[in-house]
Structures are given as structure tokens and as C-alpha cells.
């Protein structure tokens, strides 16, 4: 009886997601094996082939995939480097009474319209804008600021847009590493840096994993930031897919690109996980952190919840 | 007072700088909304013209209204489906839960643009090829598109909340001769309530924010606010857009404060609130 009740409660969600997620995405996968029949058709599936995938990997489009991967990896790394100290500061150094406020402040941009925030950057970075004027007045640059509509602007935009998604899980992870543990490490003669790298950071690893995934995955599919800040040069795969559906009307090619995008995201995550596993292998054998029963479960909890 | 080490000072300065970075474009938008001029980018003088212009421009008002309606309905749909699924996952575990979690994971890692290009032909297929008129309705299309990710978010939130609290209360309720529906209504739902509420507000804001899916599935006549802004991007941004954004920011802050207040009343710490609202 219990089991059937469970299935019945989840039934509406099952149906909703099967009809409006699985079926349409399945249709896109099906389209990706077809072709564009003529100027007026969008797709046809009477001859199936992998030709659209070959087409999507041709040099012109391949450059865009490369660029997207570059922005995705660089953006995620910068988010991690920028966000990690902030999250540590919020969770450990800032006075406990102010933590709630700091968390709320991180979430304000997160809850402001994505597009409007990005337009804010467009205003800031504009060659005739005040930042450009200020930098010229100080003498840092000679002419007007030429950052807008470059890959640099897209990178700045994605770092800005996804930074809260990095800070929040890191904050939760650092917050869960208890203070007494750090004090114990210091009492045992470890310095501040040693404590951070051998106690705090290893215990906060689930938060790092969650943050990296939360930033990297949506970043790779980004369409808005690149459109607003990138102009023609900041091309991302998201824009490519959109243009195949909206302007070129080649649904077969657009579908193949969309499927490739998902494959690239999953492959990068898998390769990244493998690399991290290999690189940290010597550290882990030297640095094993064995704690009592309650700590590991508490420390491993955020990743399940946040990544899930 | 203990002397602060240089690394602590560096950390604090870095923290403040990052917060300035996070708020810079938002402040720029707020300031721009008081710009009296034709274009958002070039500052002319201070004034409230852009706020007054909202009363004269039905297109902007309609777009915002469509967004609010869609957000509300999408949030109700997502909360309803997600809460039931979350309760089912937490209280009726089994093999099916892994399948369902796998599906939710797929939903949350699929880039929005893929959902968008997939839903467009699917809606055309349902609405025109199968002739189900429902799917030609602009609001229904938007609600469906916006609800997908939110269903996953609400399911996670509710599940996380209930998994943390074991089922003893429900068992006690059953021992005290409460019928299953009564236990559900008076024990399980109140237990899940903070997560349900957070999920509802999160779904609402996610829907208000949704630009990519909306741009694809919308039909003319029901253009939501972000899509209106996206099209204005090509024809020139006017200060009215900043004015609307400022108003919406204030409303969002009020909603955010409300959630934090409710969660704090329920006894959550800052970290719990961050976890609940940060999507799990």
C-alpha cells in the first residue's frame, strides 16, 4: 500500500516531466538525425544519418564550440578563485550575527532579473560610459574602453552572473566545518595555511564540487550574456542553436548542435572529475582525514543536497 | 580586541570588493531609472519621467502583467507537483526514487536553450498537428516552459526538508488513530511547509526571470517582460526599462525578506536559509 501511495503522489510530476521534458527533448534528438529538405522546410526524417553532426563539427561551428568551452572553463575557474575566499570570509571570519545579512546580500543579484543585470554591465562597459571616462581620467587607458562586445566582456558577464551560484554552496560547506576542528588543528601545531589546506578545504570539498557544477553547466548553455555583452565576437553555442531554429530555420542542424552541447557538457564534467581524481590521488593518500562518525556524514551532506 | 592578521584584513577587503562587484550593475540600473533622456546609456538629468511614462505605455504594463500572471500560475503548478513528488520521495522510498531523481537531474542539467528549442516544435506539434487548442494559448505555453526546472527545484527542497526529519511524527499520528489523509494534512504538510513556501517563491522568481524559454515558446500578444526587454535591446534601451526593473527589484526584496522571516520563525539558521534558497 505504501509503495502504491508513493507512486500515486509522484504521478503528476512524472507525467508532467515526461510529456513536457522527455518527449520534446526526445523529438530534438530524433530531428538531429534528419536533414533540412529545402528552403521552406525546417526538418525531414525520411533519411536518417549522422551528417548533421558532421556538419555541426565543421570548422566554422567547431570554433564556436571551442570558444564556448574556453569561456565555460575559464569562467568556472575564475568564479571558484573569486568565490572561495568570499565564502570562507562569510562563513568563518565575518561576525556570526551578520552572516544572515551577508547571505541575503549574495542572493539579491541572484534574484534580480538576469537580463537586466547583464544590461547593467552593458551600461558600465560602454565606451562612452562613466567607467571608461574614469579610467581615462586616471590615465589607466588612453582611448575609450574597448571591452564591450569582446570575449573578455562575455567572460566578465558570466563570472558576474554565476558567482552567487558558486558562493552559496561554498558558504554552506565552510559553515559546516566546525570551529573546534580548526582549533584542534592549530593546537596540534599546524599553521593557518596548513589548517586551511589540510583540514578546512578537504572537508569543504562537497561544496566545491557543487559550486563548480552549478556554475559550469548553466554557463555552457548561456545565451543571454553572450547576446548582450558579446556582440558578434563572443559567440557561444547557445546562440548558434537559437539562430538555427529562429533565423536559419534548419531544425535538424540546430538539434544536432543542441545534442552535441549536452554531450560536450557531460564529457567535460567527466574529464574534469577524472583529472581532479588523478591530481589529488597523491594528496589523498598522504592527507587522509579520518574523523569520528558524525563529522563525515555532516560534511558530505551538502553535496548531496546542493548537487541534487 | 585581538589583533587581526594581515590575511584576515586581505580577506575582508576581498569580501567587500566582491560585494561591490555584485551590486555594481544593479546600482547602475537603479540610478539609470531616474535618467531623463531618450536612451538608457546616456545620462541627461535627474527626474521621475521614466516612472511616469509607465502609466502611458500599455505595452510595458501588459508585458509585466503577463510575467506576473505566468509566474504565479507556474509557481502554483511547480509547487503542487514538486511538493507531492518530494513527499513521495521522502516518505515512500524505493527503487522508483532513483529513477525519478535521475529524471530530475536530467531536467536540471539540460541547458535552458535546449529546453527552449525542444518545446517550440513540441508545442507546434501538440497545438497544430494534434489540434489541441490549449497549447496555442500563450500563457499556458509560458507556464509549461517555466515550470520544468521549478518542479525539480521544489521536489529537491521538499525532499531535503522531510528526509532530515524522520517519519516518527507520522507514525505517532497513525498510532493515535489519525486516518492517512488527516496525517498528511496535519503532520506531513506542516512539516514540509517552509520548503514548500521557499519553493513557491523561488519558482515565482525563476519564472519572472526566464528569458530563453519564454522567447521561444511565446506567441505574439502574450509577450512576457524579459522578452520585451530582449527585443528592446535591438531597438534601443530606454530608461523605462530600468524603472520597471527597479520596481521589480523592490518587490523581489520584499518577497525575499518575507521568506527569510518565515524561515527564521521556523528556527532555521543563516546557513539553513542559504541552503534552502540556494536550490537545495
From TrEMBL, chain A:
Every copy of the ABC transmembrane type-1 domain together lies at 65-272
Q: Where in the cell is it found?
A: Cell membrane
What SUPFAM superfamilies does the annotation carry?
MetI-like
Q: Where are the transmembrane segments?
A: 7-33, 69-89, 101-124, 153-174, 208-231, 251-279
Extract the CDD domains matched here: TM_PBP2 (cd06261)
Whether Endoplasmic reticulum counts among this entry's keywords is: no
Q: Which InterPro entries does the UniProt record give?
A: MetI-like (IPR000515), MetI-like_sf (IPR035906)
Q: According to Swiss-Prot or TrEMBL, what is its membrane topology?
A: Multi-pass membrane protein
Q: Which Pfam families match?
A: BPD_transp_1
Whether Transmembrane helix counts among this entry's keywords is yes
Which keywords does UniProt give here? Answer: Cell membrane, Membrane, Transmembrane, Transmembrane helix, Transport
Q: Which family does it belong to?
A: Belongs to the binding-protein-dependent transport system permease family. CysTW subfamily.
Know the name of this protein?
A: ABC transporter permease
According to its UniProt entry, this protein's organism is Agromyces soli
From TrEMBL, chain B:
Q: Give a Pfam family name.
A: BPD_transp_1
Q: Which keywords accompany this UniProt record?
A: Cell membrane, Membrane, Transmembrane, Transmembrane helix, Transport
Bilayer-spanning residue ranges: 12-34, 64-89, 96-119, 139-158, 195-221, 241-263
The UniProt record lists the keyword Cell membrane: yes
Cell location: Cell membrane
Q: Note the superkingdom of the native organism.
A: Bacteria
Main localization category: membrane
Membrane topology classification: Multi-pass membrane protein
Q: Where is the ABC transmembrane type-1 domain?
A: 64-260
- Give a yes or no for keyword Translocase in this entry: no
Q: Which family does it belong to?
A: Belongs to the binding-protein-dependent transport system permease family. CysTW subfamily.
Official protein name in the record: ABC transporter permease
Give the source species.
Agromyces soli
